[in-house]
User: What shape does this take?
Amino acid sequence: MGCSYIQVREKSLIYEGKIYEYMDFFKNVKISKKRIIVILDENLYINMVDIRNDRETNEKRVSKVIKESFGNSDDFLFNYEVAKDKQTLYIYGVKGGIKVAKLCKGGRNIKVFPMQIWVVNKLKDRIKEKSWQCIFKYMKVYYYCSIIEGLVESTFAQENINLFNNKVQEVLNEESLYLDNTINGLDIKGMENFKYIELGAILNEKRFSK
Assistant: This one.
């Protein structure tokens, strides 16, 4: 059995093109020990910390910031990256920890991604710029991501296109903008110069494990 790719939503799971309620999935579906889990629909929280004069290890600093910002919630998953040139610690948090914990039971080689990070990582293979923006849509939810010097610095998700339009207008910057070629209905000042990008292969379930 190869790699099992599972999409996580608030009230359902998507596996091999089928939508399952959680209890039904855990009772009736067998998955491999190698798993890729992608969390859909959730906003990705980003906390940037200046570590130029920090004597603590990155791990201790991350733990402190997480506790201050999120408390002891078990429903958040965290990761961090360091921008060495800027001496900045990027801490990423996303809801879904309780659901993901259940999906990890019995697994050995497991990777977990928020949808935003998954798509950005894949696009980095095709976009050679260090700083850029992208807008894409997946399962009725719109996503915006701003990448500065290779790291995601700003992002949000929204299902309502009018609310999404308004929010994008506030955050749109001067970096190159890549727009999912399946999106219609965006009407944002300053979006005259953008490049369409085809995301079908990236979002195709068969490609997620590659």
